[in-house]
Amino acid sequence: MTNLDQFKQTYFDESAELLGVAEAGLLRLAPGQVDDDEVNAVFRAVHSIKGGAGAFGFTELVAFAHEFEAVMELVRSVRIPITTDLVDTLIRANDVLAQLVAYARDDGKPPDEFSAPVVEALRRFNVEDDDEADSAAERAPADPTPSNDTEGPETGLVDGTAGTSAQAAGRGAGGLVPVVTTPDQQTYTIVFIPKPDLLLSGNDPVFLMRALSRLGTIAVTCETGLVPPFAHLEPEHLFLSWRVRLTTDAAVAEIEDVFEFVSDESSLEITTEVASGDTDSSIDMVSDADASLKADSVEAAAASATVSATGTVATADRRRASGGDGGLAVHTIRVDLDKIDRLVNMVGEMVITQAMVAEHVRDLPPGSFQDLQEGLEQLAQHTRELRESVMSIRAQPVGSVFARMPRLVRELAGDTHKEVDLEMSGEATEVDKTVIENLVDPLTHMIRNSIDHGIESPEDRRRVGKSTRGTVHLSAQHRSGRIVIEVADDGRGIDRERVLAKAVQRGLIPSGSGLSDEEIDNLIFQPGFSTADKVTNISGRGVGMDVVRRNITNLGGRISVFSAPGKGSRFVLSLPLTLAVLDGMVISVGAERFVLPLTNIVESLRPRHNDLHSLVNRCDVMMARGRYVRLVYLHQLFGIPGAVLDPTEALVVLVEAENGERTGLVVDEVLGQQQVVIKSLEANFRRLDGVAAATILGDGRVALILDVAGVQDMNRRSSSGRARLLAAPPVSPIQTVEV
Amino acid sequence: MKKTVLTVDDSRTIREMVGFTLKSAGYDVIEAHDGQHALTVISGTKVDLVIADVNMPNMDGLTLIRRLRANPSYRTLPILMLTTEADEKKKAEGRSAGATGWIVKPFNPQKLISVVQKVCG
Amino acid sequence: MNSLVSSTPMAPVQTGVQAGVQAGGARGDAARGEPAVPGGPATEEQYVTFTVGDEEYGIKILSVREIRGWTPESRLPNLPDFVRGVVNLRGVIIPIFDLRARFGGGATEVTKRHVVVVIQIGERTRGILVDAISDIVTVSRDQIQPPPDVETGMINAQYLSGLYTGADRMVTILNVERLFAAVTGDVETEEATIGV
């Protein structure tokens, strides 16, 4: 039989997420601020936790969730006002719920009266009259030991069948012929006259008859007397009715249960007749009918054709049989992360080997070994798919990290006496697990920074005509094969004068440097830089934005800040989606080869003389696709000897950084597209400007993977002559270069 | 031929349990995590039965049922509501939206199978 | 240690070992005949020595992972000439430093006889390009003199751990961590910026 335990892990995983969702929603709940979506999300989260708990028989969890849900229902239907007291109680309730989930997970039992105080508190808000409370209790029993629990199957489930049958039985007692249930065989006559529009509710009498046949042996007569003349026939309407003789040991409630969904729309009559010896005559009919109805189940047909076997037993057998062979299907498994990592590494090595073989095959005379070539094509395709599948195993939504932030914001806002709302979007954006793990610290820092330095006090905000509540917006999205995360606030923006003064005072820059606004803003990423005049216990923990930047760049990412005085700041963080493999284009410059991420490449072209223009400051530009782009001579930037110097004899690869900035990279040759395994340069050496990482090509040699935005930065610095001014590269402004 | 059941629920646990139970009983099962998603999923597949939760983000179960019924292709498609709320009011709401029937959570596997058999064989 | 010996294109280990051990006096008796166990008596240490030009240098054997022949490097941009480039060491990318260039002798013109000493500093693996491996010597601590304050030959004193003077030879023991710190960022030094 079905083993429910296999779903418990899913349930606990999901509950953890839902608790996070609920917490996040509750933290955003404030008097006068009711966002229906938020409230609904909390309600659904509690509801789902309760639903799952019911399935596993976690009665205490169900009971508590029910109390919680009842109050959420009142909030949802705007029947009680949102007060700080209410929100606090709901947050406490969520904590208790989380603990009860933990107890259930660890097979522990909460202490007696564990949830009582919070239940008490919740009930204070459940001011609706007793009738309401009763009906709510009816909907999902709050009583931790429902009486029908014991009647459930061996799993100890709350048994849905029993409840429903009981209801049906109740109905039967009111309107229909009362039949005393006996365990012995009874023969019933069932007259079923459906309403004409029965088919439109998706019900189908055939299936109802089939369901009856599972209860016992049946003889069905179809009555056609009500069918109108053809001219008046509505094809979607049903004019047939049925008379069924059913011999079964099932209770009448079970028969009514078959008609549960159609009884309101139809006329149903169930009468008993004294069991007689004529059951034999119906058996042949039944087995015929059954065989035709269930052609897919020979076994079941055979079972019900056996005189001695009752229908119910046959059904149970069939179910057991199908449960036995199909029961091994498992939909999720838990895998040790190490195993996945090993798999990822293996795929990485395979990618390299595949590239190596491909390179050897390229050297074969063209046209020869056709089959080998084709096989390799396929291998390349499969390798790519394998890589993608493996990577998708590790992908997770960033929501798991985002979910930690509301609490942080609430706490920080409390500590700083500021009013701050956190908005989040793009939580479902997926990114590799390794990246996720490395996001928590930077995000925490950026948000601390925004609240501590960005958002003003309510008084200050009112003074400048802003709403007293500040907003921090956290968002994630995929862009150009990277994940871009933004933390934006509507605070005071970066105080450039103070930043500049501080930088000069710290000797980071000489005075009178004449930096641009962006360059000043980016000084906050300099090591040892802190703008807080007094060290607060929030940002002043000795860890500054320089550490954030270092962590991000170590991951092959970039961080930049955009600020508008008085309006707020926006930190933009871009990271690769995975730290393992990428699709690249191999290019050569002199004797060196480099890899350009395919996501950055627009096209490659060989410029003609009249496409090229030289600007005064020795910056060459080229007309490409109707706009000018700056040319970057890689050989010049990287000091590579022996390269092709004349762009008209070289190639220009038009590249675009995530920020949309386009540049023409002048290279000798484009050697081909290839999937490469990202290898760290930092592991044994260090980060280099303009270089994202390294890889190993098919011949075993190392090639550097270029960081397009980094190359653009280098080029900008070398042409503006300020290269030495800032030890770390300034960040490129988000705008297209219009030269 | 195997019948295909589309199970629509925002709870992964419920989706997996429904899916597992029905697959063991010989059905093909496909999943959607809310009403909106269900409309997308169903458009490319032949589905013999939809089992939809009521409370879901983006598009709830009742709206999903109405949207499906509004499409001529799904006028007679069996649709079961999965609900914890077994009261008559909910059932009536479901019925007027066009639901074929309902399954009350928590359900046990046998009950689920027997209800499914009742509406799609 | 097996890899050290077996992966050699290294110069044959010569009698210098014996000479070195004997120079160790009484302790040499224990060590003679079989190689001294690394991590043996705390006062004794083994060094791999190699030559660049006419000079002989030593590195603690415990930090040497292997010695390999030269494979063509890939250049790294905008770094001092002693950063030779990077190579693929069984799937891991390691930088190669040119010791001659580091000491101002210009870039090494690599031949098949040149070797790379692969060393491990903390978590990091690096290669040092040298002319040839010459020896493995076991010396006691007290045989190593502290580095002189003045410059020795081509090298600034801060890159030395000490000097070992045996019979008719002088081995300069290198502080490899400091030697390349300027470009690796391992150790904060006064020349922490590129382009020393």
What is the fold named in CATH at topology level of the largest domain in chain A? Heat Shock Protein 90
Relative helix content of chain B? 40-55%
- DSSP helix fraction of chain A: 40-55%
- Distance, first to last CA of chain A: 72 Å
Give the H and E element order of chain B: EHEHEHEHEH
Which blocks of ≥5 consecutive residues of chain A have pLDDT under 50? 129-182, 275-330, 532-542, 721-739
Number of domains of chain A: 5
Strand order of the largest sheet of chain B: 2-1-3-4-5
The first-to-last residue Cα distance of chain B is 12 Å
Backbone shape of chain A: extended
Structural class label of chain A? alpha+beta
Assembly category: heterotrimer
What general outline of chain B do the C-alpha atoms trace? globular
Question: Count the helices of chain B. How many?
Answer: 5
- The H-level CATH homologous superfamily of the largest domain in chain A, spelled out, is Histidine kinase-like ATPase, C-terminal domain
Q: Total domains of chain B, how many? A: 1
Number of helices of chain A: 24
In total, the number of strands of chain A is 22
The total strand number of chain B stands at 5
CATH class type of chain B: Alpha Beta
Give an overview of the whole structure.
The complex is a heterotrimer of chains A (739), B (121) and C (196). By secondary structure, chain A is α+β, with helices and mostly antiparallel strands. Chain A folds into five domains: 140 residues, Four Helix Bundle (Hemerythrin (Met), subunit A) (Up-down Bundle); 156 residues; 60 residues; 178 residues, Histidine kinase-like ATPase, C-terminal domain (Heat Shock Protein 90, 2-Layer Sandwich), CATH 3.30.565; 146 residues, SH3 Domains (SH3 type barrels). Helices cover 42% and strands 20% of the residues of chain A. Chain A contains 24 helices and 22 strands. In chain A, strands 14-18-19-17-16-15 form a six-stranded mixed β-sheet. The longest helix of chain A has 26 residues. The C terminus of chain A is likely disordered. Chain B has a single domain, classed as Response regulator (Rossmann fold, 3-Layer(aba) Sandwich), CATH 3.40.50. Chain B is 45% helix and 20% strand. A five-stranded parallel β-sheet of chain B has the order 2-1-3-4-5, sandwiched between helices. In chain B, α2 packs parallel to α3. The longest helix of chain B is centred in the N-terminal third of the chain and has 13 residues. Chain B is globular. Chain C is built from six helices and eleven strands. In chain C, β1 and β2 form a beta hairpin. In chain C, the strands form two sheets. A six-stranded mixed β-sheet of chain C has the order 8-1-2-11-10-9. In chain C, strands 3-6-7-5-4 form a five-stranded mixed β-sheet. By secondary structure, chain C is α+β, with helices and mostly antiparallel strands. Chain C has a single domain, classed as CheA-289, Domain 4 (OB fold (Dihydrolipoamide Acetyltransferase, E2P)), CATH 2.40.50. Classes of the chains: A alpha+beta (739), B alpha/beta (121), C alpha+beta (196). Chains in contact: A-B, A-C.
